Amino acid sequence: KNVVKAYGDVTVVNDVSFKVEAGSLVTLLGPSGCGKTTTLRMIAGLEQPTSGQVWIGGRDVTLLPPLARNVSMMFQSYALFPHMRVLDNVAYGLLNRGLKKADANERALEVLAQVNLEHLNQRWPAELSGGQQQRIGVARAFAMDPGIILMDEPFSALDPITRSQLQDELVNLQAKLRKTIVFVTHDMDEAVKIADRICILHSGDILQ
User: Fold this and answer.
1) DSSP-H helix ranges across 4-155
2) CB burial class (10 A; 0-12, 13-18, 19+) of residue 204?
3) What is the per-residue DSSP string for 162-188?
4) Which residues contact 74 (CB under 8 A, 6 or more apart)?
5) What is the Cβ-side half-sphere exposure of residue 113, based on CA atoms within 13 angstroms?
6) How far is residue 177's CA from residue 188's CA, in Å, rounded to a whole number?
7) What residues have CB less than 8 Å from 125, skipping those under 6 apart?
8) Burial group, residue 118, by CB count within 10 angstroms (0-12, 13-18, 19+)
9) Residues 6+ apart with CB under 8 A from 36
10) How far is residue 1's CA from residue 54's CA, in Å, rounded to a whole number?
11) Statement: residue 182 has pLDDT above 90
12) Chain center to CA of 61
């Protein structure tokens, strides 16, 4: 609601307001430097708005830290722990949340099955392709069962065929699990393919 983010005299997000319906996939679309990643980071709690408010599930979370917001953030880089096998990477957040190891592993295997990688659960990240590593990232985000999944151009480093496959898988997974997703991209084709709604940003403003 009316979110502004300024660094000194430079305003990167200018009085932005929009609503994301629960269970929908919304993309923030625009060129580099338009404010879409900064907006995503403010939803996550990684950046504080200069003014305005962020609400999640009817609750003002503007001043809450990321851990208190029940969100998962997924970046372009895979950010997998190289010293952990696939299963341990996916279960890591669940263990930190206090789940028993057996329960965390069971949940991790369920989500790995949904991205068709349960058979690779004992591989090391270095033994996986880029597309497989990003699937692990998707599985880790969904495994936490967050209220919102935030994705910052997660597929942009992949080759076109793998990228298209992952877009399809994300759409199918989101439709099945009805997760609320905010997805940042600069690719119009990607936005049209995956989104329920598209929010077009330019120079810190929402155009449409």
Assistant:
1) 36-44, 86-96, 101-114, 130-143
2) buried
3) HHHHHHHHHHHHHHHH--EEEEEES-H
4) 137, 138, 140, 141, 149, 150, 151, 152, 154
5) 6
6) 25
7) 78, 80, 81, 82, 84, 86, 89, 133, 136
8) middle
9) 28, 29, 30, 184, 186, 201
10) 6
11) yes
12) 18
Q: What span, in angstroms and rounded, lies between the C-alpha atoms of 30 and 207?
A: 10
| CA neighbor of 13 nearest in space, from 204, 208, 207 | 204
Phi-psi region of 175 (alpha: psi -120 to 50; beta: other; left: phi over 0): alpha
Strand partners, 5: 13
Residue type, 54: V
- Residue 25: half-sphere exposure toward Cβ, Cα within 13 Å: 22
Sign, Cα dihedral of 50, 55, 60, 62: negative
Q: What three-state secondary structure class fits 156?
A: coil
Give per-residue pLDDT as tens, 71-95.
998 888 878 899 999 999 999 989 9
Residue whose entry in the numeric block shows the structure tokens 């992949």? 158
**pTM for this structure?**
0.91
